[in-house]
Amino acid sequence: NDAQNICNMFVTASRQLAKNIDHHTLNEHGLSKRYVRCLQISEVV
Prior knowledge:
The protein has 2 helices and no strands. The protein has helices at about 1-20, 35-45. Helix 1 (about 1-20) packs antiparallel against helix 2.
């Protein structure tokens, strides 16, 4: 699934990015909001 592959690449990049961003950009679970949104999109696809 191309959408899943794209999401997986995004997740990998977002994990690397998360190491460099401020804590206030993370939600209570420690996941970036973009990561959560990507998961929601991947569930729809």
